[in-house]
Design a protein that fits this description.
Blueprint (H helix, E strand, L loop, with lengths): L3 E9 L9 E10 L14 E9 L5 E7 L19 E3 L4 E2 L9 E7 L12 E9 L6 E12 L4 E8 L12 E10 L9 E8 L7 E4 L7 E5 L4 E9 L6 E4 L10 E3 L22 E3 L9 E8 L8 E6 L13 E3 L2 E9 L1 E13 L2 E6 L13 E10 L5 E11 L3
Parallel strand pairs: 17-19
Antiparallel strand pairs: 1-9, 2-3, 3-7, 4-5, 4-8, 6-7, 8-9, 10-11, 11-15, 12-13, 12-25, 14-15, 16-23, 18-23, 19-22, 20-23, 21-22, 23-24, 25-26
Length: about 400
């Protein structure tokens, strides 16, 4: 079997420890030139690009670090990849003078052609956009997963109804069953097989996890005592097609402040099937376009009368993270929020929940959007292995991608 090396990128848009007069905008990554895709790479290179607000040509670097399964960068020197983990002083393109919010654009692909950067270990990684001479100064960061598919897992998807409780409306009981089966190759030890993760579209912060040590009615693990394994997730609610804003037309969306939907106010779509989407992605105007500027985009929704929780905006622009800073403001029974976005197309949706400290509890992805088996989603399946080599690390040995419409 040929070894397939893949990369899954997860983008965090909020800069940390930012220096004065330097700010990253529209930080993202994708496979090759397909900017709408979740970056799971087999033969393509990983593209990272962003706009940069700076008074002068910046001196930046990109630092890559291998992580454990919880996204904590490792201190294990065997996994540091020293000599091939830092990319410094990249080239930048100057943005058109018509853009007021940014001055430079960065775009590069990794691993690079000079062999300076490599990702030799299968597992979770992070990258950091830093000062070229002081890597403790970080302007932005992201996550990605490198996968060596060494199993050839057989993955299936089928429709089921949830039966753990009574669902009302009954559409909320609609779910997908994702099952992965494989025979473990002789070079691996069965006791080190750990868990399976399933990611829906680009919602990387909310994976479905099957732990081999905890069987439930909806998360199940089977081992025949030899080399046959089965992992099953039975509670994947498909949701609805995402909402979409397209603010590329500068004749239609004029001025610095615009509405996400030209008609303005939005409503619940629980019983209304959405239009085809980008599976959580985005398409931005080319950075060389004179109109590829940034707008304050206002999102507004009128909720049903029986809503008692907070409302949050989630989308491609914040890596599908339900975050306190994206909590919408209630006024006259309308929830609203404004977000600075570059002209482009963005998938998004509204979710409900409650802020508890720095996190959001009781997240409900379906209250406004509904739940239908007709929704087209991609599901990415990863198998983790507790590898004892190199001092021990969380090794991904299996990968598959399935489409719910197939």
């Amino acid at each position: 079997m040929n070894k397939i090396v893949s990369f899954l990128l997860i983008i965090l848009l909020t800069p940390v420890n930012a220096q004065e007069n330097i700010k990253l905008l529209s930080l993202r990554a994708y496979p090759g030139d397909d900017e709408t895709a979740l970056p799971v790479l087999t033969t393509e290179k990983l593209t990272i690009d962003f706009d940069l607000q700076s008074d002068q040509v910046p001196q930046l670097g990109v630092v890559f670090k291998f992580c454990d399964k919880n996204w904590i960068p490792t201190s294990n020197l065997f996994l540091a990849n020293n000599g091939h983990n830092i990319y410094t002083n990249p080239d930048y393109s100057v943005l058109p003078v018509t853009l007021k919010n940014a001055h430079y654009h960065f775009r590069n692909q990794f691993p690079d052609n000079k062999g300076l950067i490599s990702f030799p270990f299968s597992g979770k990684w992070m990258y950091f956009i830093t000062d070229a001479y002081d890597t403790s100064i970080v302007y932005g960061k992201g996550k990605f997963i490198v996968v060596n598919d060494e199993l050839g897992m057989h993955v299936t998807l089928k429709k089921e109804k949830l039966e753990d409780k009574t669902y009302f409306p009954t559409e909320l009981s609609y779910a997908f069953n994702v099952t992965a089966e494989f025979n473990l190759p002789d070079k691996f030890f069965p006791s080190f097989v750990d868990h399976m993760e399933v990611i829906e579209n680009q919602k990387t912060g909310y994976p479905y996890i099957v732990d081999k040590n905890l069987n439930t009615n909806v998360r199940q693990f089977y081992w025949d005592g030899n080399r046959k394994f089965t992992f099953t997730v039975r509670d994947i609610q498909p949701g609805n097609e995402y909402r979409q804003t397209d603010i590329r037309n500068y004749n239609k969306f004029t001025g610095n402040t615009v509405k996400a939907q030209f008609d303005g106010l939005e409503y619940s779509r629980f019983f209304k099937e959405g239009n085809p989407d980008l599976n959580g992605g985005e398409i931005l105007l080319n950075y060389q376009n004179d109109y590829a500027t940034y707008l304050n985009v206002n999102f507004s929704i009128k909720p049903p009368d029986n809503l008692f929780n907070d409302v949050f905006l989630v989308g491609a622009f914040n890596n599908w993270q339900v975050l306190p800073e994206y909590k919408m403001t209630l006024q006259n029974n309308i929830y609203s929020i404004s977000v600075l976005l570059k002209r482009g197309i963005y998938d998004y949706q509204y979710v409900t929940g409650n802020i508890s400290g720095k996190s959001i509890k009781d997240i409900d992805w379906y209250y406004f959007e509904g739940n239908s088996w007709d929704t087209a989603n991609y599901y990415y399946v990863f198998l983790y292995y507790n590898d004892p080599d190199l001092g021990g690390y969380d090794h991904i040995i299996g990968y598959a991608k399935i489409f719910s419409k197939q």
